[in-house]
Amino acid sequence: MYEEERRQLVHRLKRFGYVKSEKILQAMEKVPRHEFLPLEARSHAYVDSPIPIGLGQTISAPHMIGIMLEALDPQPGNKVLEIGAGSGYHAALMGELVRPNGKVYTVERLEALGLQARETINRLGFGDVVEVSIADGSAGLAEHAPYDRITVAAAAPAVPRPLEEQLADNGRLLVPVGDRGYQDLILVVRRGDHLERSELGGVVFVPLIGQHGYDNSPLP
Fold this sequence. Notes:
The protein is of the alpha/beta class. The chain has helices at 3-15, 22-30, 62-72, 89-98, 111-123, 161-165, and strands at residues 51-54, 57-59, 79-83, 103-108, 130-134, 147-152, 167-178, 183-191, 194-203. The chain has one domain (50-203): Rossmann fold (3-Layer(aba) Sandwich). A seven-stranded mixed beta sheet has the order 5-4-3-6-7-8-9.
């Protein structure tokens, strides 16, 4: 089900230049996005737009996921940390990209979402390469550090220092930084003790809630 819609979406992402990497396009054609969505939203799974998944969270638009994956550039054998598991779709894509010897650790603050993501990931056969934790992701996941790649699927007021500290040499950290309404996508690359930063463009993400993100108070 939805195979043709998935192929058409991948074709559009390539045609319009959002995703150039063949390995990322192949992963997006293989991993069934609809399986990570609530039943009532599955008919929209292969529309290139963000989709609500409950509890105020969304699954990012496919073009944005593709852009982030190209910037992050996960390689086979990499150890990856994702902050904000959400539905688990992004983690599954990264799991496909780091196989056969890599590992993806994804952290979700909201227990209900994290448990659902874990169930979906295991059911679809990614449980060997993706591990879901329920925790404050803004603090990273120190027990498995350092990481070759770190990606944050929520907006932080600044790059969380624990994530910089948990980044391996020559590692890449991708995080939206800004206010709750608009952010810049920041890429941090570690070169020994030096951190190189570059801005990749404007984005809009839900806020990163936690000790090193935003607090959970409502907007004024």
